[in-house]
Backbone:
């Protein structure tokens, strides 16, 4: 009964908030605290999600698993007052069912039923300066998901965006899993990114990240766009601190290149290659997030001496989105292989309501040291955003 009440209450709440939000859009800046609160913006979403994993070979340690989840997101941000605004976002999850005891908690994982995913103070000056402090969604080269951070974005220079900040904790939370905020490294991570697009068709982004007593890495990402072709070349290397795990982790590095081509309108294809350091891989660099691996799972993309080749295609027609991705990762001293196929389809009923399904097939090497089994994974979701 509690699960039904959660979904029903969420539906009623969403309709109430949508109506309220229609009357509270930011038409102008607030002049007093009352206006800042009453003219604030509400956003959120409701979703139903299910996942099933069928292993090709089962034993006492590896069994099929499945679970379903009902998800609610509710966020609010005040209208800016003298450049300042305050925002918060809560996410809630309710188990709809599971195949075996523990599938829901350990399979995703869902570590909490409710989470303050965002809670921040924001200060902005026109489109030149933006400072956000607190829990927030982040999309930087090596910071992703939700971070407990302070991030400053400055675009005072023409065609240049400078981002600098610090994060102490991260969490991944959504319709398919929800983590507690945790520390990937003991003393957090500092970063600086400079993105410049002053050259025609070219965007360059040099950056440096440093996690005290863990790792310092720096890299350069370049994008070249011309007509229907987009090329990416990205390289990063690092120095791992001798204090991190008693100096038992080697330096990390990674190379990524990708070419994307729009063949005809709404039909796109891409091909890429990823290579990590022969001794250290790139795992520690991804501790706070990443934007390179294209796979749904991709267990070995950042492993030691991993070489990944992949190709994909996507097509949109009417309100239907179709995509397919296939890749092979070779890794380790014995040149082991992991093959992964992702096929997905989505349908947009409206701008707010969509449904999607995905099939994931993973074929691991029989000599896999971690004993990962081969499996098929099936994902399905329906999501409404307001």
Residues:
């Amino acid at each position: 009964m509690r699960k039904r009440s959660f979904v029903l209450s969420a539906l009623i709440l969403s309709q109430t908030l949508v109506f309220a939000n229609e009357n509270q859009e930011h038409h102008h800046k607030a002049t007093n605290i009352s206006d800042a609160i009453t003219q604030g913006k509400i956003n959120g979403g409701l979703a139903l999600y299910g996942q099933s994993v069928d292993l090709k070979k089962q034993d006492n340690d590896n069994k099929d698993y499945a679970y379903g989840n009902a998800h609610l997101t509710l966020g609010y941000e005040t209208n800016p007052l003298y450049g300042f605004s305050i925002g918060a976002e809560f996410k809630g999850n309710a188990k709809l069912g599971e195949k075996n005891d523990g599938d829901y908690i350990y399979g995703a994982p869902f570590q909490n039923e409710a989470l303050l995913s965002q809670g921040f103070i924001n200060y902005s000056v026109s489109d030149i300066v933006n400072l956000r402090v607190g829990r927030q969604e982040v999309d930087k080269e090596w910071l992703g998901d939700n971070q407990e951070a302070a991030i400053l974005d400055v675009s005072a220079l023409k065609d240049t965006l400078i981002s600098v900040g610090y994060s102490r904790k991260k969490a991944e939370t959504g319709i398919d899993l929800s983590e507690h905020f945790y520390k990937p490294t003991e003393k957090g991570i500092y970063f600086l990114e400079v993105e410049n697009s002053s050259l025609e068709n070219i965007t360059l982004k040099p950056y440096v990240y440093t996690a005290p007593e863990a790792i310092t890495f720096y890299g350069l990402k370049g994008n070249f766009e011309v007509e229907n072709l987009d090329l990416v070349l990205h390289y990063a290397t690092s120095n791992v601190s001798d204090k991190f795990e008693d100096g038992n982790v080697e330096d990390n590095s990674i190379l990524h290149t990708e070419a994307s081509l729009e063949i005809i309108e709404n039909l796109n294809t891409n091909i890429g290659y990823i290579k990590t350091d022969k001794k250290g891989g790139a795992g520690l660099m991804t501790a706070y997030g990443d934007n390179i691996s294209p796979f749904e799972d991709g267990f070995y993309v950042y492993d030691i001496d991993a070489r990944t080749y992949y190709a994909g295609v996507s097509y949109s027609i009417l309100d239907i989105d179709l995509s397919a991705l296939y890749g092979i990762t070779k890794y380790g001293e014995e040149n082991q292989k992991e093959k992964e196929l992702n096929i997905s389809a989505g349908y947009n009923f409206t701008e707010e309501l969509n449904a999607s399904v995905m099939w994931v097939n993973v074929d691991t090497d029989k000599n896999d040291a971690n004993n990962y089994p081969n499996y098929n994974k099936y994902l399905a979701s329906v999501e409404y955003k307001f």
User: Anything to note?
Assistant: Helices lie at 2-22, 33-38, 103-107. The first strand starts at residue 41 and ends at 55.
